[in-house]
Amino acid sequence: MRAHLPLRLIRTTAFAAVCVLLAALAHWLSDGARPEPWALAAGLLAVFAAAAALGGRERSPAQVACLLVAAQLGLHELFGGDGTGYVAAHLHGQGLGEALGMLTAHLTATLLTGWWLARGEAALWALLRRLARRLLLPRPAPAPAAARPLVPVVRARAVPPDPAFRHSLARRGPPLPA
């Protein structure tokens, strides 16, 4: 099933907004500095363009997580304050513990968000498939009601089984040839 333009734009907007807001919030909470407005706009535009190019069909959870990891790395680099490589500054200018903490926080948030987006993606496509089946498949015409015979129906009373045979196994069928 392919996504047409309106659905593609809705999915792309949701992905880009979640991705950029996650990265901005993580940077704001980790080092106390908010990303510049131009960096937010540039990141939103870049993620939107990439997601629009790749959003033509349903993606698996692994694909969504990989796209989120790539987007988070790019946004992490973009939101660096001094214009130099932010990842390189983490790895070379700061202690390894702080760099690993930032990397762990990014990966954890990215994988949780990827799982959340993948579940939303699966739910959206399941809903669209149901709607397509319901709207596009012809429904059979109801069969005309047949006239019921006026014969009374006698209901038989079930006889409870003998307690001695409660655990026996009844197999029906012809005997096996010798």
Structure description:
The chain is 63% helix and 0% strand. With 178 residues, it is an all-alpha fold. α1 runs antiparallel to α2, α1 crosses α3 and α2 runs antiparallel to α3. The model has no long low-confidence stretch (mean pLDDT 75).
Order of helices and strands, N to C?
HHHHH
Q: What is the approximate shape?
A: elongated
- What level of helicity do the residues show? 55-70%
Uncertain segments are none
**Strand residue percentage:** under 5%
Radius of gyration equals: 30 Å
Q: Classify the secondary structure makeup into a structural class.
A: mainly alpha
The overall average pLDDT, rounded, is 75
According to DSSP, the number of beta strands is 0
Largest sheet: none
| Count of individual helical segments | 5
Distance between the termini: 56 Å
Write a short abstract of this structure.
The protein has 178 residues and is mainly α. It has helices at residues 5-31, 37-54, 61-78, 86-93, 96-136. α1 packs across α3, α1 (5-31) packs antiparallel against α5 (96-136) and α3 (61-78) crosses α5 (96-136).
